[in-house]
Amino acid sequence: MSTLEIKDLHVSVATEDGDKEILKGVTLTIKDGETHAIMGPNGSGKSTLAYSIAGHPKYTVTGGSVTLDGEDVLAMSVDERARAGLFLAMQYPVEVPGVSVSNFLRTAKTAVDGEAPKLRTWVKDVNSTLERLDLDASFSQRSVNEGFSGGEKKRHEIAQLELLDPKVAVLDETDSGLDIDALKIVSEGVNRFREQEGKGVLLITHYTRILRYITPDYVHVFVNGRIAEEGGPDLADQLEAEGYDKYVKAGV
Amino acid sequence: MTETPAVAEAIETTKVSSHLHPEGSFRVEDHPVPTGREEIWRFTPLKRLRGLHQETALTGDTDTPVVTAPDGVVAELLGADNAVKGTSGFVPNDRISARAWEAAARTLSLRIPTEAVVEEPIVVTLTGTGTEDASATHAVVTAEPHSKATVVFRFEGSMTLADNVEIVVGDGAQLTVVNIDDWADDAVHVGHRHAQVGRDATFRHVDVTFGGDVVRHDTTAEYAGPGGSVEMLGLYFADAGQHIEHRLFVDHNAPNTESNVVYKGALQGEGAHTVWVGNVLIRKVAEGIETYEENRNLVLTDGCQADSVPNLEIETGEIAGAGHASATGRFDDEQLFYLRSRGVEENEARRLVVHGFFNDLIRRIQVPALEEELVATVEAELAKNVLKAF
């Protein structure tokens, strides 16, 4: 089982003009096996939510709580959160020159599991995962994210999702910048993850396009640091037709 | 007054005067004792040179280097007056190199005969046994035309040393020279390396600097014909109180030549100081050349200083390309966050980032046995400080 519970979360970020509150009380629970989509206009605080859950040092939590299966996530360091079972697929994955994908994946897997993976099955797992994501075998010898195309970066994020096998995955605009073929490949990877018992997904997106391939259980409209409306998958269709205007206006 | 036709001026290739590459001289008295205010000395802690730049006798009993030379290589310890000395065209460019030139009692000559291909590296190990008496040595590496070899100079132990190494790369030859300063903490080493690169020859110099109290290397290259290629790679790691200085000069004095310089360093601990000065001169005659130099420093703790000065003098615009880059920074927080968000602990993440920083360079050395050793040495350096500090 895995339940991610976010309660009245307030987060600010330091700016030149002092601290600025970005999240203004977010409450959201992702229960066992559920997929939640968060949709919203640019600047609404969607990515801040993702980074705050992962523990990025740029963001300061000023109130509220985040728990994973009852454990206080906010009290954990960044790496402890990952080892507890959280995963963040990043919108802008970071280059780590000189560190090969294969070294990186093995180091991360060892850290998350607390022991080194069995060599024979691991190599097989890595190769088949890369292959399913249409990344060729030489990919694992390249430096992490260095010189990757936009699509390769996102597919590499999903490869990590599948190999590290967390309890709850937060996908931060994984669909942005992908062509339709890459979008399908990435969605298939996410769906393989979801098909397993009890996995939670928080899918953050600006566009409804990806929701045609990954059907959410719930859709939340995020505006001005809060959830403005919640509904089922049909809410996404409504957003597609009407846009965010009515929420943005109401928010002001 | 004689008139010089404009066209003659346009093709002159002899003299370009600049403080970046002072006119050399074999006579010690032509090089006044530096005060520390001179451009070429301003970064160097002269007081810690144990008088190498002054009058200190360079008569230390130079332990004979141990030479491991595979078949086909001619290794000889010759007299100071042997004609091989000076064949690279090296002219001492400062007082220490002039003093070492004068004082070195012998010349170590390593010769790779014409068309010989030597797979195993030629290894020269000099192990110092004390710093009291300063020493001077001289070596000449000659790769005859179309030969191929790798020479490793390894320095260990405690010593106060001034040395000159001349390198002659014959036409079409491929030579790699690796210099490893793996000194004890109290060593002082001021070294000059000069390479003359023949027509269509390939010369790679790898300079690895880990140990010593003060290490200063002048590494210079010029071309004996068109089409030559020079790659200079450097890797250094300065600990608390250590001064590591690299001064490079590539003289593009022939057309269609290439040079590529990449030096990467890490600094950790109070008073760790590194200096990198990369000079490139593109003479009027050097049309069609391509050059790039790059220096990157990773500052791992507070209290370190990294100086980085790239210089490019261009006398002709008819070139394929010329550029340089220099960057000095701390750990990239975004890199650490990315690794940690995958469960990797902070210390391990730092270790990975530093490994990656150097691996990029180590992979380009192309001497497999050395690559493993360098990865292990980087690991040992990291264990000293980076992992403890957090």
UniProtKB/TrEMBL annotation, chain A:
InterPro entries: AAA+_ATPase, ABC_transporter-like_ATP-bd, FeS-cluster_ATPase_SufC, P-loop_NTPase. Residues 4-249 form the ABC transporter domain. Keywords: ATP-binding, Nucleotide-binding. The keyword rRNA processing does not apply. It comes from the Bacteria. One of its GO terms (molecular function) is ATP hydrolysis activity. Belongs to the ABC transporter superfamily. Ycf16 family. This is Fe-S cluster assembly ATPase SufC.
